[in-house]
Task: structure prediction
Amino acid sequence: MSLLNTLLAEESRALAGHNYLEYHRQRFQYVLEKCRELCPDPGAEVLDIGRSHLSRMLLQNYTSVTTLGLPLSEREQFGHEAGWGALDGKSYAGHIVFDLNDAQTIERIDTDRTFDLIVFAETIEHLHTAPELVLGLLANLLAPGGLILCQTPNATALPRRVMMLLGRNPYELLRINAGNRGHIREYTRAELVAIGRRAGLATVSHQYRDYFRVIGGLAKKTVLKTVAALIPPLARGQTIVYKRTLDV
Result:
């Protein structure tokens, strides 16, 4: 077996024990509630970046859900890709095949469609292209008055700070599998606001929230949840909502 195959097998075993649905269950619920708050019309045109379990959940609330990302495959490779097919007879409005990492070379996605709400959840940290280019490209897909819900980990969350103080790198190494490199870059609130501004987007709202499952004992869970409630900037997650500057 080649070195690459050996490393891929080791990485696959290490990731196999991660229950993606359970880890993100509270986050999914938060996103759905936020979407209903931002865009209550069930007939709204919604675009979800990357088809996943979340896409299926959105399809329960909206009659027209389109997805955007890499070509669809019936074979589940990673936990977040398991929602490629619709449920209960409901169909997606379509899938736009586009790699957002190509935003640096393509100014505009080849589609004339626009959307009232773009859900860009837990994706920006996986991209190696400058986020201004990605958000600028998504801004071109917004209908007048449309919104982008961008969700991503908090780069300065409490666990990150503690690990750094202990002399440990709080960020994971790039993964061996070229199709799932892990987190390339995480962001702070100030960075997300500035990135949006450079992309022609104004910040509508920003919220810190600890909606990821805690891996560890009760003491760890209690500390993380309590600190996040008392000092929100130390929470592990954050969600920012953008609208085009032209719509301000």
